């Protein structure tokens, strides 16, 4: 299974095409919309999120609530496009640079300058429109389809905020806790401790007041993955490495940790590795889960615990210095709008990119064109490894 996305941030729409889904899998528009709406929430977002109301249109590959086995194509319309029709339309436009809103001032921390150098664009709008994190809406749509597949295989996944600007969530949530607490409309920074949540929101307010931005740490927890998904035989079949790649591919993500993560470098082996136990009901399991559910590029059957590290948003109201590519003069740009913190939204994005990698790995290991057969195959495998 794979997916592609297309679309510019202020263009007409975002498109996602997913290929390789089995037929006869239940899939509803609501499954995807719920994820899209969660991604739009989050304290610290800018004005753009007040313009957009992300809703998916399923254009192909689904009939009467079930997949057909043919490519699934999904569309999300950009409501902001109506303000950009001339600038983002496909028809030729006047040479008047003001009218075209040509971008010649690259923003530090964005793809602007490197993208311009690579593709030869003297108008960096041609870079920023695609490099924008608006594209993560299309990725969440793909991930929501993958999450639906996982859910029907009794695998649950959730992403939440672990840390914002150095303020840490105090709890280690389990799936039951996540379901109970959820992600509320008013304060989608997911932590059980209201006090910590308030501190995070205060830090976001302060950053905004200072014209600055902040980053943080997101975490994804997965329960129900059987042991032995992924492989140790080749670098590109190691599931932890694929997940790491997909997490770092999210805009502004600069690192990944599994389980205790970088802490492992400072501990002895006896404090890091997870001892193996067995009982009749559960089969093999671990006394601890410090390695976050991965060994040798494969799942261990324990919950997967994955952290993503997000840098602060690069566009600042108190802007950094840069150089105009036409005049070569230094400037301090003024900006119109930006998020000051997108960590809560990014936690939802991370949940969905991880979901896609997991669903893909399962389909590689149990290749079935019909979803009921995939479900059956996974169930037999679960029984097999329990008694192994
Ligand atoms: C959900 C989300 C929202 C974002 N919103 C903004 C934003 O409003 N302003 C901004 O400058 N960067 C924003 N970013 C980050 C930039 O898209 C990203 O830093 C930039 O494309 C450069 O990519 P890199 O940081 O991965 O190198 C956002 C990222 C995510 C995941
Ligand atoms: C549109 C989204 O995020 C955008 C990501 C983004 C960036 O530079 O990455 C910049 C902002 O967009 P704009 O320049 O239109 O204000 C964010 O709102 C979204 O998440 O759907």
Automatic annotation (TrEMBL):
Pfam families: Chorismate_synt. GO terms for molecular function: chorismate synthase activity; FMN binding. FMN binds at residues 130-132, 251-252, 296, 311-315, 337. Its cofactor is FMNH2. GO terms for cellular component: cytosol. Its EC number is 4.2.3.5. NADP(+) binds at residues 39, 45. It comes from the Bacteria. One of its GO terms (biological process) is aromatic amino acid family biosynthetic process. Keywords: Amino-acid biosynthesis, Aromatic amino acid biosynthesis, FAD, Flavoprotein, FMN, Lyase, NADP. Reduced FMN (FMNH(2)). PROSITE patterns: CHORISMATE_SYNTHASE_1, CHORISMATE_SYNTHASE_2, CHORISMATE_SYNTHASE_3. It catalyses: 5-O-(1-carboxyvinyl)-3-phosphoshikimate = chorismate + phosphate. Pathway: Metabolic intermediate biosynthesis; chorismate biosynthesis; chorismate from D-erythrose 4-phosphate and phosphoenolpyruvate: step 7/7. HAMAP family: Chorismate_synth (MF_00300). Homotetramer. Belongs to the chorismate synthase family. This reaction introduces a second double bond into the aromatic ring system. This is Chorismate synthase. It comes from Ornithinibacillus caprae.
């Amino acid at each position: 299974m794979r997916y592609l996305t297309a679309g510019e941030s202020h263009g007409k729409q975002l498109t996602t095409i997913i290929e390789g889904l089995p037929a006869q899998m239940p899939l509803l528009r609501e499954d995807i919309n719920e994820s899209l709406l969660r991604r739009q929430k989050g304290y610290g977002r800018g004005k753009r999120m007040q313009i957009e109301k992300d809703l998916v249109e399923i254009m192909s590959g689904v009939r009467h609530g079930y997949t057909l086995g043919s490519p699934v194509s999904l569309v999300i319309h950009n409501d902001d496009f109506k303000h950009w029709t001339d600038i983002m339309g496909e028809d030729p436009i006047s040479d008047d640079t003001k009218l075209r809103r040509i971008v010649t001032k690259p923003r530090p921390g964005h793809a602007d300058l490197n993208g311009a150098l690579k593709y030869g664009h003297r108008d960096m709008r041609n870079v920023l429109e695609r490099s924008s994190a608006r594209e993560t809406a299309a990725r969440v749509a793909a991930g929501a389809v993958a999450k639906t597949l996982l859910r029907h295989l009794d695998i649950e996944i959730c992403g939440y905020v672990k840390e914002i600007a150095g303020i840490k969530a105090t709890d280690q949530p389990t799936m039951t806790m996540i379901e109970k607490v959820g992600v509320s409309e008013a304060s989608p920074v997911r932590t059980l401790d209201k006090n910590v949540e308030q501190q995070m929101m205060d830090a976001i307010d302060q950053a905004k007041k200072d014209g600055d931005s902040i980053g943080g740490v997101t975490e994804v927890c997965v329960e129900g993955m059987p042991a032995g998904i992924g492989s140790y035989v080749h670098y590109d079949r190691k599931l932890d490495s694929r997940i790491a790649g997909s997490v770092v591919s999210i805009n502004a993500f600069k690192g990944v940790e599994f389980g205790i993560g970088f802490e492992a470098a400072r501990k002895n082996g006896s404090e890091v590795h997870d001892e193996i136990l067995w009982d009749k009901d559960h089969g093999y399991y671990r006394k601890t889960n410090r390695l976050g559910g991965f060994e040798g590029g494969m799942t261990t059957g324990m919950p997967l615990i994955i952290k993503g590290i997000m840098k602060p948003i690069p566009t600042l109201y108190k802007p950094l210095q840069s150089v105009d590519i036409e005049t070569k003069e230094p400037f301090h740009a003024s900006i119109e709008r930006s998020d000051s913190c997108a960590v809560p939204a990014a936690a939802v994005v991370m949940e969905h990119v991880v979901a896609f990698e997991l669903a893909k790995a399962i389909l590689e290991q149990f290749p079935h064109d019909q979803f009921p057969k995939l479900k059956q195959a996974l169930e037999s495998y679960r029984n097999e490894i329990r008694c192994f």
